[in-house]
Amino acid sequence: MAEAHQAVAFQFTITPEGIDLQLSHQALRQVYLSGLRSWKKRVTRLKNNVITGVYPASPSSWLFVVIAILATMYTRSDPSMGLIAKIQEHLPVSVQCRTVVSAVLFSTLLWLLLIFTMRLCLKQLLSYHGWMYEQHGKVSNTTKIWAAMVRIFSGRQPLLYSYQGSLPNLPVPAVKDTVKRYMESARLLMSDSEYERMTTLAKEFESSLGNRLQWYLKLKAMWASISDDFLYVTPTPIQAARAGNTLHACLLYRRKLNREEIKPVILNVPLCAAQCERIFNTTRIPGEETGKARFFLMFVCVYLDSLIHWQDSEYVAVFHRGRYFRLWLYHAGRMLSPREIEHQIQHILDDPSLPATGEAKLAALTAGDRIPWAQARKEFFSSGVNKRSLDCIEKAAFFVALDDDEQGMMGDDPAGNLDRYAKSLLHGKCYDRWFDKSFTVVLYKNGKNGLNAEHSWADAPIMAHVWEYVMTTDCFQLGYTEEGHCKGDVASSLPPPTRLTWDIPAECQERIERSLAVAQTLADDVDFHVLPIQDFGKGSIKKCKISPDAFIQIALQLAYYRNRGSFTLTYEASMTRLFREGRTETVRSCTSESCTFVRALEGGEEVCRHLFRTAAEKHQHLYRMAMTGGGIDRHLFCLYIVSKYLGEESPFLKEVLSETWRLSTSQTPLQQVELFDFVNHPDYTTCGGGFGPVADDGYGVSYIIIGENMINLHISCKHSCPQTDSHKFGADIKKALMDLLELMSPEKPDPSKAEQNHSKNSKKDL
């Protein structure tokens, strides 16, 4: 009851003697400090908006321009060429002030014009992508001049969103070029008759409907997962302590994000940071089915789901043993320390209360089909206590799951336990993760942790960036006591976490069970395997003078061919964040060059090294094309959306969009290399992240290249398909990597070069 009274700032009671007014000074102080923190955030946000708005100039440069103009005026020269005098004529101020005021107004206009010009120049410079196509180690004079100009116009000390206004828009490729590249990629996977029929459909589309759809698309353009813990190390076996440091590190990242203190990611040019805005305080809301496509939003409304983002949230929603809690992460206007968060988490772990009827498996609604969840949300969670509790979860900074299981690379079967650990992060029990939240932090009983992220609001590298910061801050900055607890003290006035209450009727419970059955069937079918490869890494591959990504992708083609005896349509994710609000594009990694190489290698031909380099160069070219707006699949997908909006049917687009990606791949980049020290701390190796299979009879492969000597892979498929096996495919991938490394070893002679040298010597003899 004491905590309840503290939560009320004032209360009054009407009695026969009058009004009895009681004030809680402590509660009033909490309200004051919370309001003060909120206003500080608003001021910081306003300041950052001003700094970002005038970038690449700085607000102080305005004063420099004003002083320069006033100085020239005192030398009896007119830098405005008469404009200052024109401004004076329209100023309703005294004669003495007119000159100064008009000069300041002219200076301000000149300053804004200079900013606009600099941003326009920077935007044009960032539209140049020729540097990506140059041979490694050989930089042209054009690129050198371009790089110098970028440095001149880029300004100094950018904030996270400083470059957003200067990034170019994603271009719309020509229909002819996209169709041509598509047919080239499809040729090797089709029979002669299939290819001839598809060629006819492509020509009809290109000459008729394609041009019309392209016109609409150009008009629109003018308007316009999981991550694991450290592999070998568990910093503390105490669940609440690991939660304390992890959650506090998440808050530190959010504070840096709000202040825009996180450095923009620079890949010779800045990458778009728009996705970072929705990391925290974001939820996906289910929508009911519709048969229409909303063209101006460029969104396929098969389900009218929507992303809701709130400016701030001072608490997280916590799930433990079927119960939901609200855990405040701020007190008296300050962030809770790791030790205080540990204390609060322990309070939840020690709570003996039981779940309310229907509460334990409630989150299964977010794991099942979207339409039943949308209908249940509208029918059972739109008012009363259920709405208040659901609002609490959806408006939380993020979701936290306290798991009673122990996970990690441990016991008599470390490899198998590692697989189960990753699979647990992927879907858990299907009711202990709130899958609609932007991300869920999962904390296991033995101190291991991990992340489950919703994918619609952002791509994997965004959450990977957060998790890299959280893991390294947890271990190397915050640390633990010798007993394994968080450092620091606990304030005696902390209010305990609050249980969320629910009133779930029997009909809603039945829908929860149906959603759980759907989700459980899918989850049980997932075959998941984590494969750490320590035999070699980026260092060994670079000695072969081959792109590490191209090396791995060709190895995947070789492994799949050995595994299934054929080639398949392959998806590799490539980012398009060189452009404003860019997300991803597809690299079709199965090329005629890679297939030619694989067949030659399996046939024992001696020209394999030359064919491998040709395949690697083709892959690099396709990857660069995808990054610079020259990909195939996003353009075809957008044309399909426009056709649906116009009510037009395209046999060509229908077939393209129905193709099956039996091999879906993605690289998780290690972005903040400076945070990791693999030399002095080799055990603090991240496991990376993974995802489920895209096709029922296919594989999902995610890989992360760690340092110079390690590659970690997450491989998924379905138990229900007798042709797929994640462990067998993992073994095939490892053997393919080793075979390619042996083939391309610098010590091994290249038969193709030897033949070329022999030919040259023969000509000399003649």
TrEMBL record:
<keyword id="KW-0276">Fatty acid metabolism</keyword>
<keyword id="KW-0496">Mitochondrion</keyword>
<keyword id="KW-0812">Transmembrane</keyword>
<feature type="compositionally biased region" description="Basic and acidic residues">
    <location>
        <begin position="745"/>
        <end position="766"/>
    </location>
</feature>
<feature type="region of interest" description="Disordered">
    <location>
        <begin position="744"/>
        <end position="766"/>
    </location>
</feature>
<dbReference type="InterPro" id="IPR042572">
    <property type="entry name" value="Carn_acyl_trans_N"/>
</dbReference>
<dbReference type="GO" id="GO:0005741">
    <property type="term" value="C:mitochondrial outer membrane"/>
</dbReference>
<feature type="domain" description="Choline/carnitine acyltransferase">
    <location>
        <begin position="170"/>
        <end position="734"/>
    </location>
</feature>
<comment type="pathway">
    <text>Lipid metabolism; fatty acid beta-oxidation.</text>
</comment>
<dbReference type="Pfam" id="PF00755">
    <property type="entry name" value="Carn_acyltransf"/>
</dbReference>
<feature type="transmembrane region" description="Helical">
    <location>
        <begin position="50"/>
        <end position="74"/>
    </location>
</feature>
<keyword id="KW-0813">Transport</keyword>
<dbReference type="GO" id="GO:0009437">
    <property type="term" value="P:carnitine metabolic process"/>
</dbReference>
<keyword id="KW-1133">Transmembrane helix</keyword>
<keyword id="KW-0472">Membrane</keyword>
<keyword id="KW-0012">Acyltransferase</keyword>
<keyword id="KW-0443">Lipid metabolism</keyword>
<protein>
    <recommendedName>
        <fullName>carnitine O-palmitoyltransferase</fullName>
        <ecNumber>2.3.1.21</ecNumber>
    </recommendedName>
</protein>
<dbReference type="GO" id="GO:0006635">
    <property type="term" value="P:fatty acid beta-oxidation"/>
</dbReference>
<feature type="active site" description="Proton acceptor">
    <location>
        <position position="455"/>
    </location>
</feature>
<dbReference type="Pfam" id="PF16484">
    <property type="entry name" value="CPT_N"/>
</dbReference>
<dbReference type="InterPro" id="IPR032476">
    <property type="entry name" value="CPT_N"/>
</dbReference>
<keyword id="KW-0808">Transferase</keyword>
<comment type="similarity">
    <text>Belongs to the carnitine/choline acetyltransferase family.</text>
</comment>
<dbReference type="InterPro" id="IPR023213">
    <property type="entry name" value="CAT-like_dom_sf"/>
</dbReference>
<feature type="domain" description="Carnitine O-palmitoyltransferase N-terminal">
    <location>
        <begin position="1"/>
        <end position="47"/>
    </location>
</feature>
<dbReference type="InterPro" id="IPR042231">
    <property type="entry name" value="Cho/carn_acyl_trans_2"/>
</dbReference>
<dbReference type="InterPro" id="IPR000542">
    <property type="entry name" value="Carn_acyl_trans"/>
</dbReference>
<dbReference type="GO" id="GO:0004095">
    <property type="term" value="F:carnitine O-palmitoyltransferase activity"/>
</dbReference>
<dbReference type="InterPro" id="IPR039551">
    <property type="entry name" value="Cho/carn_acyl_trans"/>
</dbReference>
